[in-house]
Design goal:
Layout: E1 4-11, E2 15-16, H1 26-41, E3 50-54, H2 66-73, E4 82-85, H3 91-105, E5 110-118, H4 126-133, H5 143-149, H6 156-166, H7 171-190, H8 216-219, E6 240-250, H9 251-256, E7 263-272, H10 282-293, E8 302-305, H11 310-320, H12 333-336, H13 340-358, E9 362-369, E10 373-381
Parallel strand pairs: 3-4, 3-5, 8-9
Antiparallel strand pairs: 1-6, 1-7, 2-6, 5-6, 7-10, 9-10
Helix pairs in contact: 1-2, 3-13, 6-11, 10-11
């Protein structure tokens, strides 16, 4: 079985809701990172075996297989196929998993993996909301679902509340975490940490989400999302727009196309968990992938744990005992934003660039996902 290497990784700056990317067609945004990835790596476009993209709301401008329309919009040959997948927030991390698995199996040599989401244009939950309004039914409206889980309300806000209460995480702790996410992100931007990974889109070159003026004094005044709850907008990921893509190559492709291996996709894992609380998956996913890799937590030099909500990362830190200073070192989705289908690839792009910059041997990424799942990936510096 051959190794699967990341040989390039690029992303757009992440735009705020109704920000600089709000009016950009998703296929154009996806095309932007694909064409920039091809330009930077110098790979022959016709040699690409597939384009695998994540997208959580494939309706409207994101419908009809956004991976394929993005690839064609990027100018790739018509012979290069594309496929779009939905593993909720982990969609583009799963795209990397599928790409690396195809390469390791020997079926493919060069695969672009990434994702795109323009949430300003196609809001969160659009596929379900529009379907219900059109009379197509609710995703959890089936008889057998109700027999197992009843008709209780299920959403990520309530799931985050449940996890916070289960782990004894208070509002103060979550708000302090959120402020630190913004501090780390603004510091990273100021230090140029993201400069190499970002493909400027027109005049737009910096992430719009991080706020230098975020403070506890301001966010403590925010109303909670649900009555008698603790979650506020300040401790949740930001609605955002963006795209990211990585090129995954076999050992043979590296030699044939004179590519430079950045990191090896060493291990991948995906787990399921309670679909009601739904967001606790990163804990068992981390346990599963470390066991599969034969590595200890102390051997991991950098962790990227998606900040869907502050209690997700705080619970993960408590459960695993991981070093907070090595976790989300450059801020997370609370500050940088969470363009759903793109975030997995955005996190991995940031992680692999940081691993190269700071000579970090192992990096681990994990994400909670709607429906009660989580992906985990370990990269090893090449």
């Amino acid at each position: 079985m051959t190794n699967a290497f990341i040989v390039g990784a690029v992303r757009t700056p992440v735009g705020r809701r109704r920000g600089s990317l709000a009016d950009v067609h998703p296929a154009d945004l996806g095309a932007h990172v694909i064409s920039e990835l091809v330009r930077r790596t110098g790979v022959e476009p016709s040699a690409i075996d597939d384009v695998i993209f994540g997208c959580v709301s494939p309706v409207g401008s994101q419908a009809f297989n956004i991976a394929r329309t993005s690839a064609l919009s990027a100018g790739l040959p018509e012979s290069v196929p594309g496929v779009t997948l939905d593993r909720q927030c982990g969609s583009s991390q799963q795209a990397v998993h599928f790409a690396s698995q195809a390469v390791r199996s020997g079926d493919m040599d060069l695969v672009i993996a990434g994702g795109v989401e323009v949430m300003s244009l196609v809001p969160l939950g659009s596929s379900a909301v529009l379907g219900v309004e059109a009379g197509y039914g609710h995703p959890r409206g089936g008889k057998r679902w109700h027999e197992r889980y009843g008709d209780q309300e299920i959403n990520q806000f309530l799931g985050a509340e449940m996890i916070a209460r289960e782990w004894g995480i208070g509002r103060d702790e979550m708000e302090q975490y959120a402020v630190e996410s913004h501090r780390r992100a603004t510091e990273a931007i100021g230090n140029g940490e993201f400069d190499d990974e970002i493909a400027t889109f027109g005049e737009f070159r910096r992430d719009e989400g991080p706020r230098q003026d975020t403070s506890l004094d301001k966010i403590v005044k925010l109303a909670t999302i649900v009555p008698d709850g603790m979650m506020t907008a300040a401790v949740a990921s930001q609605i955002s727009d963006g795209a990211a893509a990585l090129l995954i190559a076999s050992e043979e492709a590296v030699k044939r196309h004179s590519l430079t291996p950045w990191a090896r996709v060493r291990n991948t894992a995906v787990v399921g968990c309670d679909p009601v609380t739904m967001l606790s998956g990163p804990i068992p996913a981390t346990e599963a992938i470390l066991k599969r890799a034969g590595l200890s937590l102390d051997e991991i030099g950098l962790f990227e744990v998606n900040e869907a909500f502050a209690p997700i990362v705080l619970a993960w830190l408590r459960a695993t005992g991981a070093d907070y200073l090595r976790t989300n070192r450059f801020g997370g989705a609370i500050a940088l934003g969470h363009p759903l289908g793109a975030t997995g690839a955005r996190l991995m792009t940031t992680m692999v660039h940081a691993m190269r910059r700071y000579d970090i041997r192992y990096g681990l990424q994990t994400m909670c996902e709607g429906g009660g799942m989580a992906n985990a990936t370990i990269l090893e510096l090449a």
